[in-house]
Amino acid sequence: MSAVDITADAPAVVVSGLRRAYGERVVIDGLDLRIHRGEFVALLGESGCGKTTLLRALAGLDAVDSGQIDGPAQPAVVFQEHRLLPWYSLWRNVALGLDDTAGRAAAQAALSEVGLGDRLEDWPRNLSGGQAQRVALARALVREPRLLLLDEPFAALDALTRIRMHDLVKQLVATHRPGVLLVTHDVDEAIALAHRALVMRDGVIAREYAVSRAANTNRSHPEAVALRDTLLADLGVASGDAHTRARAA
Q1: Is the pTM of this model over 0.85?
Q2: End-to-end CA distance of the chain, in Å?
Q3: Which strand (E) or helix (H) includes residue 28?
């Protein structure tokens, strides 16, 4: 099956000639990137290649030296740690910055979407890791963001919970249609979730691959197997290494 064509949708973010250096070390060097509304993009690369630096620049959390980012001033971000405020109930965590009355209603709708609609008055301390990340997703999507940035949000979860979270995030993205950039080290995760898989190297997007629906839905499909081997090779991992086939860098 062919890859999903999202290019008719409006851009969620356009990056042109982005550069970021720390002293003499150039981390991002003239990088260009475009993500459309409703498009899910996974970003892979060796540790230290600049993936998180790029995500933080898109989030407005880090400055850049030059280049242009044409995107929302406050995109939604979900990190590896859920970063819920322990002194707030779940609905107040989701509705941060919103008016109490409207915020509670919006939070209830968002929490219902992630399967926690009956836990509005509960506390973060009572949640499992997967449940906490569900709340973090609800908080990110409650304002209907144009751009959603995901910084390895499933890395600390067990394998079964991670699969369930993959299904949930695909459903949420299909409903809300933000542009999504997922930073991940997990090749299989990138193939399961993304419309495009990008490999970052030497401060730029060095490789770009369309991911077919067949590869998204069946990790044993020949297209998924071939793309996995290609991505692992790009990341310097031998495809025959059973221990590192799924997770690279």
Answers
A1: yes
A2: 29
A3: strand 25-36
Contact 196, 45 (CB under 8 A): no
Please report which confidence band the pLDDT of residue 245 belongs to, taking 50, 70 and 90 as the band edges. very low
Sign of CA dihedral 164, 166, 202, 54: negative
Determine how β-strand 66-70 pairs with β-strand 11-22: antiparallel
Quickly state the pLDDT bin for 239 (edges 50, 70, 90): low
Beta sheet of 179-183, edge-to-edge order: 76-78, 147-151, 179-183, 40-44, 196-201, 204-210
- Please check the confidence at residue 99 and state whether its pLDDT lies above 90: no
* 98-137 CB burial, b ≥16 within 10 A, e <16: beeeebbebbbebbebbebeebbebebeebeebbbbbbbb
The whole-angstrom separation of Cα 57 and Cα 55 is: 5
Angle (nearest 5°) at CA 61 between 58 and 63: 80
Residue 121 φ/ψ, nearest 5 degrees: -95, 5
Placement of tokens 């949000």 in the chain: 153
Q: Which of 185, 195, 138 is nearest to 165 (CA)?
A: 138
d(C-alpha 93, C-alpha 89), whole Å: 6
Question: Does residue 144 come out as left (phi exceeding 0), alpha (psi in the -120 to 50 range) or beta?
Answer: left
* Cα–Cα distance for residue pair 113/146, rounded to 1 Å: 18
Please classify residue 242 by burial: count the beta carbons closer than 10 Å to its beta carbon, then call 0-12 exposed, 13-18 middle and 19+ buried.
exposed
Q: In this structure, what are the phi and psi dihedrals at residue 115, rounded to the nearest 5 degrees?
A: 80, 20
